[in-house]
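A reminder from the course coordinator: this example appears on the midterm review sheet, so study it carefully.

Given structure:
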């Protein structure tokens, strides 16, 4: 990749680094607190070594992402989000496994475990959206001077934030208090499904921001709504309904289920409306092609009436040359 220009937005870089490292440090506190006794020292050394390696990578990636703040490019922001979620979800997985072992250990004395588990859910539901909004940095885009264009992209990012909260809510059902719990294969499938969505979908939204210029092009902003409609609004609705009907999990968020129903209706209507306007797009595309290459069309129109004079002139110029050549031949 080509290194970016040296000018960076230092406040944005510092804010991004502080948010990322704070959330990771809080997850480290969960891991250390769940391992009492002599194991705590080993866990503390392991998480500190991992954080040092991540800080070294963050030192460069955050600076590169800060150089893109005032432009439409969000390539390094996508890389930073991928690394952040990759490390964060690994730590969340170990925390979840520790909670699961505590539930299986009947003799373990746990004082009010629901508070720390719901605090973990609150931590993830606050840190992930804030980091994503910081990386998108819509308010710093210099080319989006009109207020209407900026608000249009901000409204699209609002749906991304809602989808992040939806994914965290589905994933949080694994470590929050349950009755008998879910089967092992269901838990693993649910966790890693949410893991993949957290890695991929925000990067898709950031790539859509990268493809925008001065004029917002609607068809370049339709990939994320289609993917989120299929992978979040429909599938998570079936996941919650299945847990509610099959396993009797009464803690299923009815608010998020209602959000998914509303999102399905809204996004489906927007897709239908987009398809209605799609047949009228070829004339507009032809006009755009004519604007892109107006000189070519003008040259074609202007050269057609000038074809005959040019041919006549070429014929007149060639006839004397042939006669002159014949006279020379006779003289020889």
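Designed residues:
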């Amino acid at each position: 990749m080509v290194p970016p220009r040296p000018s960076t937005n230092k406040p944005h870089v510092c804010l991004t680094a502080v948010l990322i490292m704070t959330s990771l440090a809080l997850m480290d506190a969960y891991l250390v607190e769940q391992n009492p006794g002599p194991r705590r020292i080993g866990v503390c050394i392991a998480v500190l070594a991992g954080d040092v390696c991540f800080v070294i990578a963050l030192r460069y990636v955050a600076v590169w992402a800060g150089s893109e703040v005032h432009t439409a490019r969000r390539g390094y922001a996508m890389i930073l989000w991928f690394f952040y979620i990759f490390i964060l979800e690994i730590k969340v997985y170990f925390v979840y496994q520790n909670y699961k072992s505590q539930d299986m250990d009947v003799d373990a004395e746990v004082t009010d475990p629901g508070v720390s588990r719901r605090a973990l859910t609150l931590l993830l539901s606050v840190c992930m959206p804030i980091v994503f909004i910081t990386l998108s940095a819509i308010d710093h885009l210099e080319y989006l001077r009109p207020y209407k264009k900026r608000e249009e992209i901000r409204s699209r990012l609002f749906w991304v934030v809602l989808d992040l909260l939806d994914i965290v809510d589905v994933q949080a059902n694994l470590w929050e208090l349950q009755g008998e719990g879910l089967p092992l294969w269901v838990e693993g499938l649910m966790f890693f499904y949410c893991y993949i969505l957290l890695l991929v979908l925000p990067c898709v939204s950031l790539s859509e921001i990268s493809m925008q210029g001065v004029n917002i092009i609607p068809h370049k902003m339709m990939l994320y709504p289609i993917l989120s409609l299929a992978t979040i609004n429909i599938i998570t609705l079936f996941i919650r309904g299945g847990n509610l009907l099959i396993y009797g999990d009464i803690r299923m968020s009815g608010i998020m289920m209602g959000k998914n129903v509303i999102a399905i209706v809204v996004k489906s209507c927007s897709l239908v409306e987009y398809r209605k306007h799609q047949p009228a797009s070829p004339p507009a595309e032809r006009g755009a092609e004519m604007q892109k290459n107006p000189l070519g069309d003008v040259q074609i129109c202007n050269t057609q009436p000038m074809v005959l004079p040019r041919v006549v002139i070429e014929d007149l110029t060639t006839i004397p040359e042939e006669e002159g050549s014949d006279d020379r031949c006779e003289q020889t």
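The longest helix spans residues 75-104. The CA atoms of residues 32 and 42 lie 9 Å apart.
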